[in-house]
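Task card 7
Instruction: Convert sequence to structure tokens.
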Amino acid sequence: MKKIIVTFLIVFCLGSFGFTQDYKTGIGLRGGYFNGLTIKHFVGSKSAFEGLVVSRWKGFAITGLYEIHNQAFNADRLKWYIGFGGHVGFWNGDNAKWGEPGTNYTVFGIDGILGLEYSFREVPINIGIDWKPAINLSGYSGFWGDDGAISIRYIF
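Output:
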């Protein structure tokens, strides 16, 4: 059974090499002040939806974004993107560096994103760097401008 799974993964990865220039979907890790998972799916040649599930202060947040992508600096496989979306997050004031101890917070808000990403030709990997400011509209209102991250995705 292990040989079948390994063989399938090798064939899948080798088959993905031709699609790395313009990928359809990427799944991976996001690391920064908020760490977690990212999935990006293109719905057009320049538009994509990205979902994030991230953790910080022993709480977590779920974010959905709509992004517009364009070629950057006339370089193949290098794109800049800008987008917007929303989030919901759940924290306990005991673990956060803000809020009242003993108070649970559920926050809702809007997000922006500005980033740059590169898709490798040789392997089905994409790497991106971005800044994602957010404004909490309820729960614990305010501006959060410290969410910058590097994402590494397997693309297919």
